[in-house]
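In the previous chapter we treated chains in isolation. Here, by contrast, the input contains two separate entities that must be folded as one system, with a combined length of 938 residues.
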Amino acid sequence: MLYISTLFEISLNSRMSKDEQILEDFTSKEYEHGWTVDLEVDEAPKGLNESVIRLISSKKNEPDWLLEWRLKAYRLWLTMEEPDWANINYHKVNYQDIIYYSAPKKKKELKSLDEVDPELRDTFKRLGISLEEQKRLTGVAVDAVIDSVSVATTFKEKLGELGIIFCSFSEAVQEHPDLIQKHLGTVVPVNDNYFSALNSAVFTDGSFCYIPKGVRCPMELSTYFRINAANTGQFERTLIVADEDSYVSYLEGCTAPQRDENQLHAAVVEIKAATKAEVKYSTVQNWYPGDKNGLGGIYNFVTKRGICAGDHSKISWTQVETGSAVTWKYPSCILKGDYSVGEFYSVAVTNNYQQADTGTKMIHIGKNTKSRIVSKGVSAGKSQNSYRGQVKVMKRAENARNFSQCDSLLMGNDCGAHTFPYIDIENSSAQVEHEATTSKIGEDQIFYCNQRGIDTEKAIALIVNGYCKEVLNQLPMEFAVEAQKLLALTLEGSVG
Amino acid sequence: MSQQVDININQLFIDKFSDFEHQLNGQKTLPIHDLRKKALHKFKELGIPNSHEEYKYTNFKKALTKNFTFNQLFKSKNDSSSFGNDYIINELEGNVLVFINGQFSESDSHFKSDEIDIKPLANAYSENPDTIAQHFGNYSKNNEDSYALLNSTYCNNGVFAQIGKNKIVNTPIIIYYISDARADEAVSFPRNLIVAESGSESSIIEVYSTIGEKNSFSNAVTEIVVEENAILNYFKILNETEHVYHVGLTQASQKKNSTINAHSYTFGGGIIRNNLHIAQEDENCTTNMFGLYLLNGNSHIDNHTEVDHKRPNSYSNELYKGILDEKSTGVFNGKIFVRREAQKTNAFQSNKNILLTNDATINSKPQLEIWADDVKCSHGCTTGQMDEEALFYLRARGIDKDKARAMLLYAFSIDVLKNVTIEPLKKYLDHIIAQRFNQEEL
């Protein structure tokens, strides 16, 4: 619990000392988690070509089939064009100006946490993650990923007793190659889109999780991503496989140091849920959004998709997006099994010059499938916030049911809120509802709070939190606290 | 292969221009001809959309390439044999203008020009050059949409109507566009320009129908200008067969305190695309849009609507409903733009669909884009089937299944129909709806 409390402290201290000041003008506030730590980095040369991919593959000591898979993806990527249909504007990425591999130098095999690079541990501390504390107090197993290579994995033994595999992707490639080969790229195929192809070619690490038959994972699994060395694109690969009748809740949280050059993050997350399995995937994303003039910030182009392969399975996405200069992300569910359920809960907050184009896809294939979409967008400053989603009911998907709600809240007159829902129905028994509203915070609501002695800033935080409650309630406890904090901080001062 | 097809159809439309010029009889000197050339130039750039987002679900290219030869385009004379009065809406009286394959039929038309300046557009080019110069082709979408450009290139006739200041006109203007596809395929490019001057109130009814079994393609553009405090009721009715391909753009521009009530009824057709774009240029505008589409067979109907709120204190309300039977496809895209200056805007949109079979498809995309903060906007979209409980309720009271089903579907449609204020027209539409559900009367 310490990492949360550290976060708390940061915000609490500043809040108590100069409460008024911060409230008055939070938009001018610089990013809190902005610093870099000098780690010894083992880097590939800038640029992308087949030899870089071979280097990555050999560094990671990968089997031949994986190298072939990467090369295939790379060759495919060369033939693809960067998509431009999203409602975002950004300077195109120069893919030859990125370092595709950088790893903190491994001096020896790590046996315990004490052996972790002290500087690295310091980074975690400043981020509010203390591995020891977490190990002891929170019951959360953390697979910390820093600059593409996992350096510490905890709670492995405890999970191991239950047969749960939770490790870094490269470890999984070494130890469970059959599982990886069986599932990798089956939910998000290499040729799915431009960024998934790029990721498939150059991904350096990520997490792998396998929950065996009938096992209910006793703790929240969590990874922390952090972009560190300058000019390092992050290409994470996450694969979660939940076997029959299992359950897992997976957390992903992000903070990144301040930098003026745009950094690219093109991750791929794949989830597979077998019969009666349930996977809950929660994200709090707070990467560097650029400064208040829109300079710098992270490009977050992520492909996330889950497949409810078996009957009665369930996949639930929850995301709180407050960071990144540009977010382009559509966590999706393919509801293949009969009676399967897909859920998507999202809060996307944009401020200053941030742009977000996010939403989901619910593809109903099986009979009696259900999906639910709750998306809450909050735009402030000069930001643009878009919801883009698709609900597709295929011909054989009898009795499919969908409910979508996407609300937008506008703060100030320089921002925009956009809704692009696609509803494609091919079955007459489908029941699909979509509703969307756009509004601002009611003056009467603020007046009501003021009247009861709550100042305007606090009232806004209160109202926004209430507005997002439906989504925040879906988050695990630890994340919910962090998320609430983030929302309040991101928005303070943005309403006059 | 498909590339080959692309070149053909686009090239064909470009090449036909000289044929078209030949039959203009000296009209080439009019300023309007420069606009045609400009439009053609732009069309050369864009071509017929193939995989464009706006035409994602509706692709005419294949249909046009496969089903039309365009051999007789701008060459043929109309079949002079009469085809009766079946296309006429009973009891509906007003200023009637009839066009057969895009050409004005004087003998079938009857209209008075005392309250309204009304005439075939071809006459207006020379008689009302100022109004034409001020409004014709001056609204943005005309220059972005390939089909509108194609219309601008080839349009020759249609209706020109200018409703004078503060004139309250109770008799509607009724325009019948008839495609005569008995002997040969019919292709037409109707074009209307309606100017409702300040304080006026009037109604325009466009009716499209086809006679004969051959294919017909019509590409229509209606430009509407509604000036300060004016009210305009606009109806577009398509009751077509499966051999009919239609793409039409209605582009309206609203000035201060004006009101537009736009109604769209589509009861069939091969591939039909209705574009309705309304731009609120000034404050306090009111826009109502009502649409109903009842489809069966292999019909494919695409309704694209767009309201652009540019100035404060405006209001728009949209209700589109559809019932899709057999193998039909419905597409709905409703865009609402609220620009930065358009504070205190209220915009509502609702799209409701019923699918009656598993072969029917609906693609709906209600789209809100908002840049102003003090607004109330919402949209809702539902797709479902008939309420089993309501059906049971009726059957429990001795109403047979078909009748009960028809009653419910009729009730679903009535939400839209009840907004029609012209009685004979309402009766006509009501009759078509009842017929569609195989009921004499409901």
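Chain B touches chain A through 36 residues (CB under 8 Å). The CA atoms of residues 240 and 269 of chain B lie 5 Å apart. Compare these points with the single-chain example from earlier in the chapter.
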